[in-house]
Design goal:
mainly beta; globular
Length: about 200
């Protein structure tokens, strides 16, 4: 069943078989679509949008497959609040993609786009491939770790990672970092099997 997100900004969407369709037009005070409650969205189709997508959830959010298509501009998805986790499945687009969680941010599917930004208020967990035709920014606050469990990271531009007092572990030799910019963390492990890049230590 396809439901328009704009019609449901004040209710919790729990049914896993609902497909939330948004055409990219900003509807909530020019900021995009806002959802209230803990939501699970099976699929998010933004392929018809031309103005970019903004999706803000005030509690935890689980996203399945998100398709941006070739005509959509930037996509910004975020949860607000320290305990508001964000779990994202496959997400692809031709423009810039930004994911931000007030709590933990977990990537469970492949992520691809131009410039990619992933920010977590707690732990940042990477469980699939990440492909950026531009740059990649990985960041946590409140001492959260950045951990790559599976998947390969391929970045054509510059990668910057920041975890404050947390650890950064990007330890897959299949990673391909064109350039690793300054890293802010207590302990860093980053591997790149393509150029023989290895970085381990305190920064």
């Amino acid at each position: 069943v396809a439901r328009n997100a704009a019609e449901h900004v004040n209710e919790s969407l729990q049914a896993a078989n609902w497909a939330i369709v948004d055409d990219g037009v900003s509807r909530t005070s020019g900021a995009g679509t806002s959802l209230l409650g803990t939501n699970q969205i099976n699929s998010f189709n933004a392929s018809s949008g031309t103005a970019g997508i903004s999706l803000v959830n005030n509690q935890s959010l689980v996203l399945g497959a998100v398709s941006a298509g070739t005509s959509t501009q930037a996509i910004n998805i975020s949860t607000v609040g320290g305990s508001s986790n964000l779990t994202v499945g496959a997400l692809s687009g031709d423009d810039n993609l930004s994911l931000s969680a007030g709590g933990q941010l977990v990537l469970t599917g492949a992520l691809s786009g131009n410039t990619l930004s992933l920010t977590s208020g707690a732990q940042l967990e990477l469980n699939h491939d990440i492909t950026a035709s531009g740059g990649l920014t990985l960041a946590t606050t409140n001492g959260g770790n950045i951990t790559q469990f599976t998947g390969a990271i391929t970045v054509a531009g510059t990668t910057v990672a920041s975890a404050g007092a947390g650890d950064i572990t990007l330890a897959n030799v299949a990673n391909d970092f064109n350039q690793f910019g300054r890293t802010y963390s207590v302990r860093v492990q980053a591997d790149d099997g393509h150029f023989g890049y290895r970085s381990r230590g305190n920064y």
